[in-house]
Amino acid sequence: MADKLGIRPLYFWADDDVIVFASALRILEELPLVPKQMDLRAVTELVGLGAPLADRTPYSGISLLRAARLSG
Predict the structure, then answer these.
(1) CA atoms within 13 A on the CB side of 67
(2) How far apart are the C-alpha atoms of 4 and 6, rounded to whole Å?
(3) First-to-last CA distance in the chain?
(4) What's the count of helices (H) and strands (E) in the chain, helices before strands?
(5) For residue range 15-30, what is the model confidence (pLDDT) as tens digits?
(6) Residue 18: predicted pLDDT
(7) For 62, which DSSP code?
(8) Chain-centre distance of CA 2, in angstroms?
(9) Cα(13)–Cα(60) distance, rounded to whole angstroms?
(10) What residues contact residue 23 under an 8 Å CB cut-off, 6+ apart?
(11) pTM of the full predicted structure?
(12) Residue 9: its pLDDT value, please?
C-alpha cells in the first residue's frame, strides 16, 4: 500500500515470477530485469498535461501505486 497522502510515490513492475518495488522511477529504469517499453498514452499525457493520469508511467508494465490505495 502507498502512503496515505501520496507524498512518496511507489512504483512497481511484476512478471510471473518477480515483483519489483521502487520509490523512484529511475531505479526501475536502471534494472536490466525490467523491460523498458514506451507507453504512448502516458507519454502523450506527460507532454500535454505535465503528468500521466491514473497509475500510468512512461513505461508499459511499470505502474504507480496511488495515495492510500491497494494494487489490484
Answers:
(1) 5
(2) 6
(3) 11
(4) 2, 3
(5) 999 999 998 999 999 9
(6) 94
(7) E
(8) 12
(9) 9
(10) 8, 9, 10, 11
(11) 0.76
(12) 82
